[in-house]
Amino acid sequence: MNQTNRINWRSLFSVSSIVYSVLGVLSAMIALEGFMLPNHFLDGGVTGISILAEEVLQIPFTFLLVAFNIPFLILGYKKIGKTFALRALISILILTVLMHFIDLPAVTNDKLLIAFFGGFFIGLGIGLVIKGGGVLDGLEIIAFYTNRNTGFTTGEIILAFNALIFLGAAFVFSVETAMYSFLVYFTAAKTSDYVVDGFEEFTALTIISKECDEVKSLIVNDFGKAITVYKGKRGYLPNSFEISHDCDIVMTIVTRLEIHRIKEATLKIDPAAFFFVQRIKEVRGGIGKQTAKDPFNDNVRKDIPAGNIKAGE
């Protein structure tokens, strides 16, 4: 991610950024005041640390949320960009101000409902704010920065931090509360992933067929998908290892809703076609996903036809 030297005021106050951030803040406030705080349920990250510290230090949650996020925002300011850091600060301040002056009643006392809906609303809020270009939890920043400087993935870093938080919850509150808090975290993580990445899970579908030209035409012309073609060999079977044939290996990026349709259509052309499917963590460019905007970066990368990708890149 490129560091931004100047604040992009147009991006900061764009309609989409404001709408996402406001909706995200409102959703997070409902989760915290309506479900989590009255019952001492935690989410992960800075939010969880703030809830624990409120119980131990008897300092209002809103003050702690701002104080604990400041070091992470400074890191984001230096390492990610000024626009991102300012947007994140504004979102956090709006959340704390609204929570300080608006009291929402507890929605339910059912622990399972609290864990599920508390996690859903906090995850929805975090995801919407990220789509708006900011964060509500500074742990996302430290995880990103540490990921760039260590061999650990972002998920592993966040999980390690949150494991310590839930362990603290078990000591400060109870083991049961810590267990329910893990359900909050799990629900929040899944919800925020869906909000940020979308409900369409992109996968790489690879096809090896003796009728490769017809398969390529089917995918491109009938389904409107871009393809990447690798040169390979097919054959090398256990009882006929010495026999092999040149072939084209066709790869395309599809959603899980398209996989079955393409496989059925391909099998009509070649019933012996070979498939394998791989989950894709991120798609940038191409017509598989028209554009990809990094939530921590204001730059949008333009389309790159998937057929231009070379093997090994």
From TrEMBL:
<feature type="transmembrane region" description="Helical">
    <location>
        <begin position="12"/>
        <end position="37"/>
    </location>
</feature>
<feature type="transmembrane region" description="Helical">
    <location>
        <begin position="57"/>
        <end position="77"/>
    </location>
</feature>
<dbReference type="InterPro" id="IPR003740">
    <property type="entry name" value="YitT"/>
</dbReference>
<feature type="transmembrane region" description="Helical">
    <location>
        <begin position="157"/>
        <end position="186"/>
    </location>
</feature>
<dbReference type="InterPro" id="IPR051461">
    <property type="entry name" value="UPF0750_membrane"/>
</dbReference>
<dbReference type="InterPro" id="IPR015867">
    <property type="entry name" value="N-reg_PII/ATP_PRibTrfase_C"/>
</dbReference>
<keyword id="KW-0472">Membrane</keyword>
<feature type="transmembrane region" description="Helical">
    <location>
        <begin position="114"/>
        <end position="136"/>
    </location>
</feature>
<keyword id="KW-1133">Transmembrane helix</keyword>
<keyword id="KW-0812">Transmembrane</keyword>
<feature type="domain" description="DUF2179">
    <location>
        <begin position="227"/>
        <end position="285"/>
    </location>
</feature>
<dbReference type="Pfam" id="PF02588">
    <property type="entry name" value="YitT_membrane"/>
</dbReference>
<dbReference type="Pfam" id="PF10035">
    <property type="entry name" value="DUF2179"/>
</dbReference>
<dbReference type="InterPro" id="IPR019264">
    <property type="entry name" value="DUF2179"/>
</dbReference>
<keyword id="KW-1003">Cell membrane</keyword>
<feature type="transmembrane region" description="Helical">
    <location>
        <begin position="84"/>
        <end position="102"/>
    </location>
</feature>
<protein>
    <submittedName>
        <fullName>YitT family protein</fullName>
    </submittedName>
</protein>
